[in-house]
Amino acid sequence: MTKRQAASVSLIFLSSLLLLFAYGCGTVSSSSSGSSAATVAIIYQHCFGDYSGPNSSCEVMTMRSDGSGSFKLTDLPSVSAYSYYPAMSPDGTKVAYVVYVGGFTTSLEVVGIDGSGRKTVASNKDYFCWSPDSKKIAFSSNSGAIEVRDVEAMTAPVSVTHEAAGNRRFSWSSDGSMFAYVVQNSLWVAYMNGTSVTSIEEVIGTSMSPRYPLFSPVDRDKLALLYAFDLAVFDMALRERTTLETDPLNTWDKAWSNDGQWIYYPKYGTGGDFDLWRASITGTVAESLTDDILSTAGITQTKPDEQRPRVFPGSRAVFFSVTPKDKNYSSSEVYSMSPDGTNKVRLTNDMHFDGTDVTISF
Question: What is the pLDDT of residues 219-230, one digit of tens each?
Answer without folding.
Answer: 999 999 988 778
